[in-house]
Write a structure and sequence with these properties.
Shape: elongated
Structural class: alpha/beta
CATH superfamily of the largest domain: Dihydrodipicolinate Reductase, domain 2
Number of helices: 15
CATH architecture of the largest domain: 2-Layer Sandwich
Strand content: 15-25%
Distance between the termini: 54 Å
Mean pLDDT: 92
Length: about 425
């Protein structure tokens, strides 16, 4: 049997995990792939850097394009992330007649249409299971297991780092900054965790899911995106008191022929499966018109869960399944793609937390503005504040005011927010989060 020759580009956290399995478990890979799988070339940034996985020095190079175009490589694993030189690597590999496996959601979100078109043009495929939900086989499910369904809703926790941080904050009573440091120490968060905590990573993954499920190509700029970096421990505690968990939730669902899309910290009732996903785990909740609701959960951060998805794609390439799935996934007719609903039309409930001056008429000022915009209140919480001496002239103490609304349109919430920002009794920053019932 002719071996499947693998060129690995990137020997970081995920790449090292992939290399370990390829070099330490060759019999497993041969059995699953139906032929030997050989690691023939590896591109790294620094040839002198010490690594956890031991590889022959003659496999290593610091030229990723040389690996992508090498004659002794059949499939390229692009695991360097970012858009450059990753785009050049993928194009070079495709033009050289090689299939590509990637975990690069940023690249596919920005350049996927062109790269997929190029792959079809040259008769190759791009497999990207690892780009969306860590070890969860969501591309397989959407491309094969649910092929007979029209997906009607996706609600997903897609960033394990953010989910870990929120879990640690609530369960251990940690501050946001302390939980971020712990995530970094455990390897869940990068030294600069911005893309995880500001919602970018989850939004990019939602874009890929939306294309797979609804045939709609969209970028994160087309829908509301908010991260967990504006939240305080108090928000998680108030939500818990009200019967909710706060999760960074990515949503795409059909509403009257349009896609409601957003990626935001969201209050989710405790009895829902999504609210019970803790730590660095991901969950994707799908609803299909035939199968109904289903939930897929697994680790969404860390070396080996992502490596597992890369290796699964590699085996699919070896046996020809990846090519079949790729051709079905990307043959969408743009004329039938579902349009994205304007953000102002999103209709849901909301949570507010305002730091306010503890003095008369404050609640009336805030609720008056909400009422003027037809935003109805479901509940109000203001815990009792310490009594102060009436003769104290240093100013009124600042206390939290928590409001839950009934359903309202996003456009009305935004208009009211502009007026709330002008109230002298409301201190910045205040928090607004959607509620998913």
């Amino acid at each position: 049997m002719q071996p499947l020759r693998v060129g690995l580009i990137g020997l970081g956290t995920v790449g090292s995990g992939v290399a370990k399995v390829l070099t330490e478990s060759p019999q497993r890979m041969t059995h699953r792939a139906g032929r030997p799988v050989e690691l023939t070339r590896v591109a790294v940034r620094d040839l002198k850097k010490r690594r956890d996985v031991k590889l022959p020095s003659d496999l290593l190079t610091d030229d990723p394009l040389a690996v992508a175009g090498a004659s002794d490589v059949d499939v390229v694993l692009e695991l360097i992330g970012g858009q450059s030189p990753a785009k050049e690597v993928v194009l070079t590999a495709l033009e050289a007649g090689k299939d590509v496996v990637t975990a690069n959601k940023a690249l596919l979100c920005a350049e996927g249409a062109g790269l997929f078109s190029k792959a079809r043009e040259v008769g190759r495929c791009i497999a990207f299971e690892a780009a969306i939900a860590g070890g969860i086989p969501i591309v397989h499910v959407l491309g094969q297991a649910m092929a007979g369904n029209q997906v009607t809703a996706i609600e997903a926790i897609l960033n394990g780092t953010s989910n870990f941080i929120l879990t640690e904050m609530l369960q251990r009573g940690e501050s946001y900054d302390s939980a971020v440091r712990e995530a970094q120490e455990l390897g869940y968060a990068e030294a600069d965790p911005a893309m995880d905590v500001d919602g970018t990573d989850a939004a990019q993954k939602l874009c890929l899911l939306t294309q797979l499920a609804f045939g709609t190509r969209v970028t994160p700029e087309a829908f509301p995106q908010q991260g967990i970096d504006t939240l305080d421990l108090a928000d998680l505690q108030y939500a818990n008191e009200l019967g909710y968990a706060v999760k960074l939730l990515a949503t795409a669902k059909l509403i009257d022929g349009k896609l409601e899309m957003h990626t935001q910290p969201t209050l989710i009732r405790h009895n829902r499966p999504l609210a019970q996903v803790d730590g660095a785990y991901n969950m994707v909740a799908l609803t299909g018109d035939a199968v109904g609701p289903m939930w897929l959960s697994g680790q969404g951060a860390g070396q080996m869960p992502t490596a597992s998805a890369v290796l699964s794609d590699l085996i699919d390439v070896a046996i020809g399944r990846a090519q079949s799935t790729f051709n079905r996934l990307d043959l969408w007719d743009e004329r039938t793609a579902v349009p994205v609903q304007p953000a102002e039309d999103i209709y849901r409930r909301y949570y507010f937390r305002f730091p306010v001056e503890d003095r008369p008429h404050v609640i009336a000022d805030i609720t008056g503005i909400l009422g003027n915009h037809s935003i109805s209140l479901a509940s109000v919480i203001q815990h009792e504040a310490p009594e102060v001496d009436d003769t104290d002239t240093s100013g009124a103490p600042i206390v939290p005011l928590v409001i839950m609304t009934h359903r309202s349109h996003e456009g009305k919430i935004r208009a009211a927010s502009d007026e709330l920002n002008k109230l002298a009794c409301v201190r910045q920053p205040w928090v607004c989060m959607p509620v998913s019932d």
